[in-house]
Amino acid sequence: MNTASRPSTTDAAPASARETFTALYEHVRPHRWVVALGLLCALAGAAGGLLQPLATKVLVDRLASSDAITGILLALTALVVLSAIVDGLGAYVLERTAESVVLAARRTLVGRLLRLRLAEAELVLPGDLMSRVTSDTTLLRAVSTQAVVGAATGVVAFVAAIAVMAILDVVLLGVTLGVIVLIGGLVALVMPRIARATERSQEAVGEISTALERVFGAFRTVKASGAEQREAARVEVAARQAWRHGVRSAKWEALAGSADGLAVQLAFLAVLAVGGARVSSGAIPVSTLIAFLLYLFYLIEPVSKLIDAVSQYQEGAAAISRITRVQRLSTEPLPEHRPAPPRHSAAAPASVRFADVSFRYRTGLPDIHHQVSFEAPAAGMTAIVGPSGAGKSTVFALIERFYEVTGGRVLFDGKDVRDWSLPHLRSLIGYVEQDAPVLAGTLRENLIFAAPEATDDDIRDVLSRTKLAALVDRLPHGLDTPVGHRGSMLSGGERQRIAIARALLRGPRLLLLDEATSQLDAVNELALRDVITETATRTTVMVVAHRLSTVISADRIIVMDAGRVRAVGTHAELVAQDRLYAQLAATQLLTSA
Ligand SMILES: Nc1ncnc2c1ncn2[C@@H]1O[C@H](COP(=O)(O)OP(=O)(O)OP(=O)(O)O)[C@@H](O)[C@H]1O
What we know:
- This is ABC transporter ATP-binding protein.
- This protein is of the alpha/beta class.
- It has helices spanning 17-28, 32-64, 70-114, 118-121, 126-136, 140-168, 170-217, 219-224, 228-257, 259-280, 286-298, 300-327, 392-399, 422-427, 443-447, 456-465, 469-474, 492-505, 522-536, 548-552, 571-577, 579-586, and strands spanning 352-359, 369-376, 380-385, 407-412, 415-416, 429-432, 510-514, 540-544, 556-561, 564-569.
- The chain is 62% helix and 9% strand.
- The strands form two sheets. Strands 6-7-8-3-9-10 form a six-stranded mixed β-sheet, with helices on both faces.
- The site of adenosine-5'-triphosphate has 15 residues, from helix 13.
């Protein structure tokens, strides 16, 4: 997969063990009391299990002395049933909490992703981010609760069993511990490999999402280019990677998982040999050997719980490391809640001024703007023209404060954009991107996207201004007709006017319109020009213009070239005074110069 040219979050340094543990604890902290309840249930269940071998020893002793055993049998049965009930309750409480941990992690992650700064978001592959939200968070399920409780009950039950075994016979305990320590050491070597394999496997899952996102983001082009098989092969490469690392992780987990059985079986053989000798020499009675062996088998559960907990921790740590890396990216403040519906007629037009603005997209990249200065006074239309790559769209990005200037100042209504609260600043601006994105959903959802409180009257008014009323009448379900993925069921011109209607519905004090470079038919072009000129009578309009018809009706035109303002004037003035503008105007299609 050729993602080398585009750094992603996966390039960031992995989280340290301490960071991972703290992040994990932060996920569990809000649920600590429920986890404690689950732990209590698990401990009660474990205590029940712990009593069973002792009860069995009493039973065997009574059998030997021909005493009645009905009472002890009934007590044993009650103990078994009770431990099962408590165990079940504990398991339910924990599973529920685990789901809550996953929900909280997803909620936090999604909240952060949507607030990423544009400059950060551009470095990230969307498919990979999606897999972090959907797939990595799932791995938190086990580690956040089962592993915590498994480790705690495992330790308690293990220590308790060892204590009882010490009372029964210290020599046999020594034999048992010797075997367990030996196998435990081998397991410890395997554990970090599980974390590594899991992280790689999750990275590959991210690559699958990235590859799919690439395909479906340009599905028509993929089909028209006959690239289906090539693209399927790309996805397959990532899927095979995920498989390879998944299998590797499964191998280490299986090895670790069978270690508990192996440890106890080996200890059993050793205890049988040593214990048998001790029984025949009269050092211990046979009932002690039986009880000891039962405790030995009782140990299987806590030991396997401990091993499971550690391998779940390794998997969870891999996921946490990937999630934490996204959380390190910087974000913007959330928009404030705006209770009152926007009144587009009431919004006073705003002015915009660039004062000696220098800008580059990232350190190490060349400057895009060099001391750019101009003024777009309140009300009326200001068009920005210039050859492709001159830095026209970047002007809008700086007004919206998608990026910070590297020098000079951008003033909105006389105040530096950095002194405005970001959500407030953006709430005053209507912004129409060059490719006028329409989102999947209904037409209505798209229209009220930037102004959810807009009333039907507001919508009707904007539809008539943008000449979309006829389209709505034609659609089978009117405003509630779905428009397809990225508005694929609409024409290019319709998409553009919907994007303008969406921006106008916000009641902006400034409308930023990045005109599409693609050709529109004459009817659409006329409709669009009318919409813009009509809007410019009510609010400030700035247009990155690619069509002669747009610039002719502008109040002032700013000519940009290679990141500099080259000339400012009206169409008539510029045709006479500026050679580049005259050339651009002569070609009609301004970007082809
Ligand atoms: N997000 C970005 N990161 C890095 N460089 C960028 C980014 N966006 C634009 N550029 C670069 O900045 C320069 C100016 O881009 P801009 O989009 O402002 O040009 P433009 O004048 O609007 O061009 P066009 O008329 O083709 O839309 C281009 O060279 C472009 O490659």
